[in-house]
Amino acid sequence: xxxxxxxxSVSGAPGQRVTISCTGSSSNIGARYDVHxxxxxxxxxxxxxxxxxxxxxxxxxxRFSGSKSGTSASLAITGLQAEDEADYYCQSFDSSLSGSVxxxxxxxxxx
Amino acid sequence: QLQLQxxxxxxxxxxxxxxxxxAVSGGSITNSNYYWGWIRQPPGKGLEWVxxxxxxxxxxxxxxLKSRVTISVDTSKNQFxxxxxxxxxxxxxxxxxxxxxxxxxxxxxxxxxxxxxxx
Lengths: 111, 119
Description:
The structure holds 2 protein chains of 2 kinds. Chain A has no helices and 9 strands. By secondary structure, chain A is an all-beta fold. Chain A is globular. Chain B is built from no helices and 11 strands. In chain B, strands 2, 4, 5, 6, 9, 10 and 11 form a 7-stranded mixed β-sheet that branches. A 4-stranded antiparallel β-sheet of chain B has the order 1-3-8-7, with no helix packed on it. The mean pLDDT of chain B is 97. The interface between A and B is medium-sized, with 24 and 25 residues.
């Protein structure tokens, strides 16, 4: 099991809004370490989607947004499109492990 | 723009050592703002951080792999390498190298290389 907990799957219809949660603990997200999000399309390398909890790299659509509160973080996707169908991972730093940790990943299905 | 490219054997025998290299192009590995990391992904599973290294050689590893992992950097060749010893079938995975902003996000990734552990 992963240090960061994500739902295995979420789904939504085109145009809808979905959120993906990432739950940690007092040694990672709760310790004020930043949360980052990645999108992995089938057969490709992960792509940085959100860094520093809520910042989008250049070129990432503003339909993607991130937030963090307490020991959890969330990724929101608005105006769902078929091309958003992918796996999404959260990542942070854990002081107990002295290293980076990933969530188990969430598969987004666009209905 | 910065690019990373993994290389190494695609097949390793059980109990042997897996060796991969990540070549960095379009930028210097000695940029003080970044670490350089390895992340792996077993078939059909999620991402697992393996370890990261700074250009000075300072490194940190996943505790679950620490006894078997060595990550090194060669600034003259602008590349860094991963060695994983005593491999088993559980080490079969796609191995990615990536640039890491400090100890934070991995912002640029290589395309990944599949390594199969089998006799």
